[in-house]
Amino acid sequence: MDGGAPRAVVLPGDGVVARFPGILCVARCPDPAPLARLLDLCREVAGAEPGRPLARRLASWLGGPDAPPDALVFGTVCAAGEATAVFLTGPVGARVGGAVLSGADAAAWTDRLVAPGPVRLALDGPAAPPAPLAGLHDLREGVVGGGGIELVGAPTVAPPVSAPAAAATAPPGSINAQPTLVGMETGRAAGTAPAPPEAAPAAAVALGKPGPAPAPPPVVPGTGQLPAVGERPGAGQPPAPGPRTPPRRSDAIHGVPPDGPPRPPLEAGDPGGTGTRSASGGPSAATPTGPGPGEARGHLCSNGHLNDPRSRACVLCGVRMNERTGVLVIGTRPPLGLLVFDDGAAYTVDGGYLAGRMPESDERVRSGELRSIVVEDRSGAVSRVHAEVRVEDWDVVLLDAGSRNGTFLAAPGDPSWSQLPPGQARRLLPGTRVRLGGRTFTFESTSGAS
């Protein structure tokens, strides 16, 4: 095995540990049937970024008519774009970077998005009676007995891959690699006790976001060619550019850093367009049709980024825009912001959400129309279905869903709270704070619309 690749170290215990592409899972139950169903759900979504699909399936399963018994205890840690998705129920704990979570702290389950980092996922609490698990174990697939799993060792680098190709192309030891006996060992078999959480290497792999690769050979600036043999790299060339600007919040929202040289302004266009669909990124002569799901009418900047027609500058590349910046076209609407909770969990606003203590009890969540945000509040003031976040054209709006204790807002820069009337939609401006019971979140956005 490559000495630089991370290893999945299985910790001793009485449960089942599984490692699928993009997913780490640990579970315990006296009955093997719920364990088999859990592993099947993981297999169905395993791939490049399975965090969100798996969380939705697990929530539907736990809240549905075929819910498993309370004796089932499990946790999953998955790749989810720029974040790591953690789902825990019962006495099981997870440590991802600096975030420490426990399923025992929630009445239903713990569902969080956290920043990537070193991973440790382990069962807590008393051991369960032994169960006949022989039919579940498969060393070739990566399902073994144990009480937890920890990723240790230096990260490896792999370019983003699609879900069907993830298992075939991901490097050994990566969270997206198909596990084999190589790179997967048990703490007992290795003859050493598992390292305590604080001893985990700082360079341990982050789910789906491996670390930097070794620097490639230098090239002669402006030529793309390697230096000649015997020539000192960089000799006679201008000094290397200084450090890049630190990432901004727009990186997390849009996934594309907005740095780079200034772009030329757009030429004036026809402001009277009604919105034509453009698959190539430019105006189309096709018959105008309405926007479909996830689409909106907007203006394209000179680099092909779709923007809110009210924006004065492109939110991705900074090109100045005005009322005569091109025609209105219909295209895929980019994410409109982030919902950043007081515990650091962040949710990308690229569709609707339903927030509450048990949002999966609502049919719109079970059908997939809305995604769930489980809000855990020790005060007990958060309703099962508390508030809804909608995306309407280019606006993000909030509605109280008939909560028992109300939904409160604070305008950007205003320390006072005002209650949102039930059923009344309120547009969220960047910096708006929202309070649900004893919990709060802030809407962050790079939108240039006023």
Automatic annotation (TrEMBL):
Keywords from the named record: Phosphoprotein
Disordered: annotated segments: 187-305
Residue ranges of domain FHA in the record: 353-409
CDD domains: FHA (cd00060)
Cross-referenced InterPro entries: FHA_dom (IPR000253), SMAD_FHA_dom_sf (IPR008984)
Comp. bias regions, Low complexity: 200-210, 276-289
Pfam families membership: FHA (PF00498)
Chain intervals with Pro residues compositional bias: 211-220, 236-245
Tagged with keyword Phosphoprotein: yes
This protein's record includes keyword Transmembrane helix: no
This protein's name: FHA domain-containing protein
Organism: Pseudonocardia broussonetiae
